[in-house]
Amino acid sequence: MYIFRSGEFSSAWMPYTNFVGTRRMIVNFDKTHLSMSIFRHANAKDTQFYRSNLDAVDFNRANLQKANFTKTNITKSQLRSALSIQNAQLPDETLGRDLNLIDNGPATCNSSLLGKWKLITGKIVRMISNIDNNCVFILQSFDNKALMLQHINLSQVWDSHLWPYSQAILFIQMTNGVSIQLSGISKNGKIINQRNLSFIEENITMRLHNEMHILEILVEFNIYSNKTQMNKSWCKDMEMFIDYDIESEFLQTPIRGTPTEIYPTARWQQNGSIVAGGNGRNNRLDQLSKPYGLYIDNDQTVYIADTSNHRIVSWKLNATIGELVAGGI
């Protein structure tokens, strides 16, 4: 596997180049001849292909999120073969969109069919909004409450080994009276992570964990005034996709754990406990030297940028020695 932290290949002649499985941060292929090259399973997020020759380039299962294909000859077939084209700049200057992981039902709006949504309680229908003529899910006039849920099988859309630093992003528009709960669930039904979204927010993110098998979206509707349709709760434009590369955010995240956030107003115990290091400054795995940044994972594992030792180490909960993650050679 190759890693490009940065790369400048503009105006280069690079046909038949093999980039299979490449991981990168910032790469510039502007005006580069890349015909017949292979980017299969490569992470080309944010990569610049402006005016490049992409004739017969293999992008099968490549991550092309936010890539720039302005004035290139990339084809629709090449784009369809990619893992993701979310927010990529396409040749026609539009933004790429991945297939919505949420099934909201048939395109015909005035229907009681809710796609893959399972109605738990109450009555919900799809109808045209009298505000903007968009299709909405709305609570029936004779109900005070309703619940519906949908499951997304992660194994069909995400490979935890190829894309370990990934997150699910849920977008939705909704009124007061609607609340969303997003849960990451293991094969045996254990809740790995859970996040909530209120009507004052427009999106929610969840870091994916290798034990997650199902993403569950639970939507609750409640009446919030009187029983006129104007005050019935509704939601629309429910959309979910996966960001397959948050590695840079992972390496730069301040003190933060999922699902627990550490707020500026948090109160701390007067006497803390050592969770990593504490055995002097050196390069043994039970030592640190000028640790700069850290990240706390879902299972309370602490990842530390051990700068003077040029490495990243992880310390599991209650561990007395760290494990080498990267560098340190």
Automatic annotation (TrEMBL):
InterPro entries recorded: 5peptide_repeat, 6-blade_b-propeller_TolB-like, NHL_repeat
Domain of life the protein comes from: Eukaryota
Presence of the UniProt keyword Repeat in the record: yes
Keywords tagged on the record: Repeat
Keyword field contains Repeat: yes
SUPFAM superfamilies for this protein: Pentapeptide repeat-like (SSF141571)
Gene3D superfamilies reported for this sequence: E3 ubiquitin-protein ligase SopA, TolB, C-terminal domain
Protein name in UniProt: Uncharacterized protein
Organism of provenance: Adineta ricciae (Rotifer)
